[in-house]
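Retry 2 of 3 after timeout on previous attempt. Resubmitting structure tokens to design endpoint.
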């Protein structure tokens, strides 16, 4: 299954996120994922593993496991490179060993002090607070993103972690509309208004952290995972599926793209098996009632400032 973006290209509705994947495991995980059926991989300069992903992709192409045209590869512009969009994109392409990207996203709607293309550590001031560059506008960043499309380096461009206000502004100044807004959304953080706004204006919503971060975000941010919710466990029993499969199916039935991350082969296979059942409207309504407005991924832990405040 795929969603047709406003750019005219098809984006597989389920993908694999590579955030926090160990470098040594990436090649085997991506090769196994391709064998399972994944054709969509979500990367970012900030994940600091583009080179390892690139080696895995090159191996898959060399062995003719898959053709480049059959894959959808996303990566993202880091905060410190807003004033160096072209160089940052070329750096990612070189590491990924690709001639073009299917989708390039502005990772966060914030420009920070430039630390050198390809370096993605958070730029903190002496006070421990993110060193934000107030001379670079999101509009200028977006027009530089549009140039990447003109140059043929990128097929579609989009935004990530933008709220309704910033998305509306982007639509106002965009010559090339954002094809995607990638945001955290899951049963405990549904963000229905933002999802509706984006979809009303032809912007596909991709759900990062579609399972609520599970153990990873509990460890990093002390957040609560929806995978432990007794209501969702009851639905899993009803459909004879795992809780993760119920949550991913819910995301798909919202017409959002889901990009769960897993470093376990059995979970990779499990997360992909979500096309052989459908949640009833009644059960969709049950999940809708579970919203806690609970963000599980909170970069303020590292930045000394809550950008969502």
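Retry 2 succeeded. Sequence:
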């Amino acid at each position: 299954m795929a969603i047709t973006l406003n750019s005219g290209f098809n984006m597989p509705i389920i993908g694999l996120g590579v955030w926090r994947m160990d470098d040594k495991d990436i090649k085997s995980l991506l090769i196994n994922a391709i064998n399972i059926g994944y054709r969509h991989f979500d990367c970012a300069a900030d994940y600091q593993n583009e080179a390892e992903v690139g080696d895995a992709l090159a191996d898959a192409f060399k062995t003719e496991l898959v053709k480049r045209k059959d894959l959808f590869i996303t990566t993202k512009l880091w905060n410190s490179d807003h004033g160096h969009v072209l160089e940052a994109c070329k750096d990612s392409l070189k590491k990924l060993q690709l001639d073009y990207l299917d989708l390039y996203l502005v990772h966060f709607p914030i420009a920070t002090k430039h630390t050198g293309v390809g370096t993605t550590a958070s730029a903190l001031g002496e006070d421990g607070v993110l060193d934000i560059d107030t001379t670079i506008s999101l509009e200028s960043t977006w027009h530089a993103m549009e140039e990447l499309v003109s140059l043929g380096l990128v097929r579609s461009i989009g935004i990530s972690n933008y709220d309704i206000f910033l998305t509306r502004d982007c639509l106002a100044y965009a010559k090339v509309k954002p094809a995607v807004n990638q945001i955290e959304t899951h049963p405990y953080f549904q963000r229905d208004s933002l999802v509706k706004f984006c979809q009303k204006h032809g912007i596909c919503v991709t759900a990062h952290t579609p399972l609520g971060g599970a153990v990873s975000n509990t460890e990093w941010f002390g957040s609560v995972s929806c995978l432990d919710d007794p209501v969702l466990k009851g639905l899993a029993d009803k459909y004879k599926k795992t809780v993760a499969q119920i949550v991913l199916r819910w995301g798909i039935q919202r017409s959002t793209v889901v990009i769960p991350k897993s470093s376990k082969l059995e979970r990779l296979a499990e997360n992909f098996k979500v096309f052989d059942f459908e949640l009833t409207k009644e059960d969709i309504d049950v999940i809708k009632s579970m919203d806690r407005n609970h963000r599980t991924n909170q970069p303020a832990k590292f930045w000394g400032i809550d950008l969502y405040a």
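Attempt log closed. Residues 218 and 224 are 6 Å apart (CA to CA).
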